[in-house]
Amino acid sequence: MESNRVAKMLVLLLCAGGGAFSLYYGLAMLMVPAFPREADFIRFRMLYSVLPIGGAIALFIVAAVQWMSIRKVRFVKALASVLTLSVGLVIVVFIVLAFGASFYSR
Prior knowledge:
106 residues; mainly alpha; 3 helices
């Protein structure tokens, strides 16, 4: 019984972490131009940002199902918890990168 719970926690962590990374990558591809004076909405650029964000949503749903089975809560509450944790992680990564870039530029 305990090994099943550990396996579910591992899947939850992998899916939430993978979803957070995929969301971060998709948002970064959406925000950072490839070269100067590039148009904002290029079809291939949107493809490279929409696919990772869609993958992140799928991973968040899988993580919410795992959270739901571990914590015995409703799906909406589990999904809200997973999204809050993952989006918080992405925001922290953006802040750390911006802080590091400010030191690099000096």
